[in-house]
Amino acid sequence: MSEFYKFPSNFVSDQFVEYIDEEEISTLTKSLAHTISQRYKGEDLVVIGVLKGSLIFISDFLKNIKDVKVYLDFVSLKAIGRSKESNGTVVMSKDISTNIEGKNVLIVKQILDTGRGLNFLINHLKINNPRNIEVLTLFDKPYKRAVPIKAEYIGKQIEDQLIVGYGVDLEEYGRNIKDLYYLKYPN
User: Fold this and answer.
1) Cα gap 50→75, rounded to integer Å
2) 66 φ, ψ to 5°?
3) What is the pTM of this model?
4) Which of the four pLDDT bands, split at 50, 70 and 90, describes residue 183?
5) Beta strands in the chain (DSSP E)
6) Cβ(91)–Cβ(80) below 8 Å
7) What does the alpha-carbon distance between residue 178 and residue 43 come to, in Å, rounded to a whole number?
């Protein structure tokens, strides 16, 4: 495998260590899809992806959903003014356009860490009176949680590492890398 495939030239590639390979990610994704297929069999389900991180995962995940009528929508959230001293403010730069009143809603995240954005999103969606709201995440970092929130469906709990790949970016790079890597020597 070429170094170019892993990281661009301005990254020091030996600082990144493969953490979860494509095969394990695929297994986790199919398992989550099977669980959701059983849970919502014969029902309608509005799947809401949180951009940009969920895009690659949600594509693979939805291909494996069976016997569920899926409606897909996306939101984009951004933390403004967040620092070590402040929780910042979460703002929504893209809202859903799907009517979720009385419907099953599944929020899909690539990674759940602080939970601030997810907490904001759940409260925002509740205003529209959905039948229920559940959360599915491929990766969970419970050590980073700043609010008491958890996902109903978790692919894998991961360590508190700076990660990149499979939808997770590092300065907007790396989402297209098929494996997940962690930074060996964080700065």
Assistant:
1) 5
2) -125, 145
3) 0.89
4) confident
5) 16-20, 44-51, 69-80, 89-94, 104-112, 132-140, 153-157, 163-164, 180-183
6) yes
7) 32
| CA dist 21 → 6, 18, 34, 135, 182 (Å) | 13, 7, 20, 24, 12
Percent of the chain topping pLDDT 70? 87
Is there a contact between 17 and 161 (Cβ–Cβ < 8 Å)? no
Kind and range of the H or E run holding 42: none
The amino acid present at 69, given as its one-letter code, is K
What are the beta bridge partners of residue 112? 140
Catalytic residue positions, numbered: 113
pLDDT tens digit sequence for 118-130: 999 999 999 999 9
Question: How many CB atoms are located within 10 Å of the residue 40 CB?
Answer: 19
Q: Is 100 exposed, middle or buried (0-12, 13-18, 19+ CB in 10 A)?
A: buried
Asked if residues 7 and 16 have their Cβ atoms less than 8 Å apart, the reply is: yes
Distance CA 108, CA 58 (A): 7
Residue type, 146: A
- Asked if 13 and 172 count as a contact pair (C-beta separation under 8 A), the reply is no
Residue 107 to residues 22, 30, 99, 112, Cα–Cα distance (Å): 23, 17, 14, 11
Cα separation, 183 vs 56, in Å, equals 21
